[in-house]
Amino acid sequence: MPGLLVTFEGGEGSGKSTQLARLAARCAELGIEPLVTREPGGTPLAEGIRGLLLDPARRPGPVAEAFLMEAARAELVTDVIRPALAGGRVVMCDRFDDSTLAYQGGGRGLDLEQLADWNRAATGGLTPDLTLLYDLDPAVGLARRAQAPGPLNRLDREPPEFHARVRERYVALARAAPGRFVVLDAALPPERLELLGWAALEAQLRRRGLIPSA
Ligand SMILES: Nc1ncnc2c1ncn2[C@@H]1O[C@H](COP(=O)(O)OP(=O)(O)O)[C@@H](O)[C@H]1O
Ligand SMILES: [Mg+2]
Predict the structure, then answer these.
(1) How far, in Å, is the centroid of ligand 1 from the Cα of 144?
(2) pLDDT by residue (tens digit) across 88-115?
(3) How far does Cα 69 stand from its chain's mean position?
């Protein structure tokens, strides 16, 4: 596929949304208007599913939770991400398929191969070109979340062991795919993280000819 798919992964409060906004602004300065979206969400149906998934009053079992994520993903990929990539756009997605492997796999304990199959069904085999992993002690991330405005969602409220397993799984995924992942120390200040993330993204943009070579 032409275009570039960049995904932002990490635990709660690790700074994904902050860094996505900063890197999108850097692209815009170069005249590249990225398509910015998020998971679960990004279409009316998928945003509806997001509301169900993050509602603390709901208690879906692990398989139902995974299928809801995949349903939202399937629609986002088909209706938004693939058309944008086909048009040569840079797509920046706040969470993508690795989140399922980390949360429903690491966190909930579902089988990794099974989840990878479900991911493939939802994405049609689409894989990110670059995945920025914001790696952080979950206690630090959750403390940031607790200080930010707005209530804690259903996943924020999972116990510390759950968040520790999510982090471990993310790190294992990054080790298994070092060509796609860039792991960043999310305890660094936002400005430093922006520079590190931009270095990784800029290299990809150059490789694809989306910005001229230096
Ligand atoms: N590098 C950072 N250091 C300290 N606080 C940060 C950093 N990045 C983001 N924050 C703050 O932490 C909170 C969570 O950031 P956010 O980008 O929403 O994380 P995420 O999208 O990964 O949940 C926000 O209040 C944000 O201002
Ligand atoms: Mg966020």
Answers:
(1) 6
(2) 999 999 999 999 999 999 999 999 999 9
(3) 12
Tell me if the pTM is above 0.90.
Answer: yes
Q: What's the 18 CA to ligand 1 centre distance in angstroms?
A: 6
Ligand 2 ion: nearby residues, β-carbon < 5 Å: 17
Domains and CATH numbers, the chain: 4-207 (3.40.50.300)
**51-62, pLDDT tens digit by residue?**
999 999 999 999
Name the average pLDDT for the chain: 96
* CA 144 to centroid of ligand 2, rounded, Å: 11
List ligand 1's pocket residues with C-beta within 6 A.
10, 12-18, 144-145, 148, 188-190, 193
pLDDT at site 212? 75
Beginning with the edge strand found earlier in the chain, give each strand of the sheet holding 35-38 in spatial order.
35-38, 90-94, 4-10, 130-135, 181-185
Which residue's alpha carbon is nearest to atom 16 within ligand 1? 15
User: Which ligand sits closest to the CA of 10?
Assistant: 1
Give the tokens for residue 192.
Answer: 């430093």
129 alpha carbon to ligand 2 midpoint, in Å? 20
Q: What is the 3-state secondary structure (H, E, C) of 153-214?
A: CCCCCCCHHHHHHHHHHHHHHHHHCCCCEEEEECCCCHHHHHHHHHHHHHHHHHHCCCCCCC
